[in-house]
Amino acid sequence: MSETAPIRILLVDDQPLLRMGFRLILEGEDDLGIVGEAFDGAEAIRQVRELAPDVVLMDVRMPVLDGIEATRAITKAGANARIIILTTFDLDEYAFAGLQAGASAFLLKDVAPAELISAVRVVASGDAVVAPRITRRLLETYVRGNGNGPADGGAPGQEASGGAPAGVRPARDPLLEDLTPRETEMLGAMAEGLSNAEIAHRYFLSEATVKTHVRRILTKLHLRDRVQAVVYAYETGLVVPSNPDY
Fold first, then answer.
1. HEC string of the chain?
2. Nearest-CA neighbor of 149 among 229, 62, 86, 140?
3. How far apart are CA 221 and CA 232, in angstroms?
4. Do 137 and 124 share a structural domain?
5. Do 69 and 24 share a structural domain?
6. Are 8 and 53 spatial neighbours (Cβ–Cβ below 8 Å)?
7. Three-state SS sequence of 19-73
8. What are the pLDDT digits (tens) for 173-228?
9. Which backbone phi and psi does 105 adopt, to 5 degrees?
10. Quick one: what percent of the chain has pLDDT higher than 90?
11. I want to staple 14 with a disulfide (CB 3.0 to 4.6 A). Which of 62, 98, 158, 188 is the partner?
């Protein structure tokens, strides 16, 4: 996408009124454009393939194919589209499952217009919308206990991340061996929910140096963004869920 081209957005929701509302908000911005709408996950997959949007606003509860499975299929296919999951609660199993499936962010469905616009721009730029600490709390809530989601058997639409028995630490991912000791420290700090500024302060580095480390970590681990790095740290056992009392 060039610097002057508008951000191409695909709206995915089975409720026409919600799609209309999002369209009215987003099309009011010169740098944003709606390239298509889909009413279920299967249609979303087809339109991502045909329209190549930059950002997908993805509902989770839809007929035919839900938003979690659609997100998983889109990311596995190697699409460049960044996916924002739309949820009802900020710390629910759908948000957790969406992040595990490859989404770059999640937003509440009643998000304020200004926040929605900002989120689309941030995600399109390759950054993460969800604060790392919120992601960490979400993961600790649903990874704790068995590593595969909520105690009732996992988040909706979510596959087990490794199939390890309850309480068993997953095997170390060989890709972690490609990280330098400093990069491993950085990944751990990211998973703790520290911002770039906080990581820089902890390790006496400049923020520019931290950003370089983060970029290298994402490249080496084949991750899409910072949020996915936090998910990865929990899934691989690099970080163990802490006490549930926050």
1. CCCCCCEEEEEECCCHHHHHHHHHHHCCCCCEEEEEEECCHHHHHHHHHHHCCCEEEEECCCCCCCHHHHHHHHHHCCCCCEEEEEECCCCCHHHHHHHHHCCCEEEECCCCHHHHHHHHHHHHCCCCCCCHHHHHHHHHHHHCCCCCCCCCCCCCCCCCCCCCCCCCCCCCCHHHHHCCHHHHHHHHHHHHCCCHHHHHHHHCCCHHHHHHHHHHHHHHCCCCCHHHHHHHHHHCCCCCCCCCCC
2. 140
3. 9
4. no
5. yes
6. yes
7. HHHHHHHHCCCCCEEEEEEECCHHHHHHHHHHHCCCEEEEECCCCCCCHHHHHHH
8. 788 889 999 999 999 888 877 778 889 999 999 989 998 999 999 999 988 888 78
9. -170, 170
10. 42
11. 62
Q: Which amino acid is at 216?
A: R
Residue 146 pLDDT:
44
* Claim to verify: residue 36 and residue 112 sit in the same structural domain: yes
pLDDT at 193: 75
The verdict on 149 and 227 lying in the same domain is yes
Residue 197: HSE in the Cβ half-sphere, 13 Å Cα cutoff: 0
Same domain, 46 and 30: yes
Q: Range of 184's domain? A: 133-235
**Is the pLDDT at 153 greater than 70, yes or no?**
no
CA dist., res. 91 & res. 111, Å (int) = 15
